[in-house]
Request: fold
Amino acid sequence: MTRKKPSERKEEIREAGIKVIAEEGFHDATTDSIAEVAGVSVGTIYNYFSNKEEILHYIFEVEREKITDFFTGLTASGLPAEETIRRFLKRYLGRALKNRRKSKLLLDEEHRPVKKVSMEILDYSMLLKSCVKELLEAGISEGSIRGELDPELVSGMIIGAADSVVVKSFFTDDCPDDVLEGASEEIVETLKRGIFNCEN
Reply:
């Protein structure tokens, strides 16, 4: 039997943590239940994490790294602002809709942070908004987005809209790909056209 690498074992514990915390909530989750789902002993968990707070910390750390890697590649692509925003939304919504359990955990804990890891959760939340803000600022610089627009405010609106789509998906059996395509385009089109009829 092949012995698993520490990185593989740590990933198994992270995935088990996502499942247990998403289903039971952070406060009711235990390292015992995480160990059971991961198929390891509690002692093995303590080889990697001191407590369940550190597991949650690591879950957010990994998600932050994934977003950062994608965003770095996106900004280096040289695409116009509209397309970069569209691609960022598709990536964010696509990952969220295809793994609703993880999305539920991230949204639950983002809005109900645990004291010991609240800065880690806040960093994740702020990263999402700062990525969109940077894309908006690039659009202002290239002249495709109005210069008087407040990137800080609008980035929060965009992430809020995306998150509302994710939350709604928790209560529907709609195909994630259909929801993703419709929602990302709707958000981008609303940004382009605004919401009010200028004639009225």
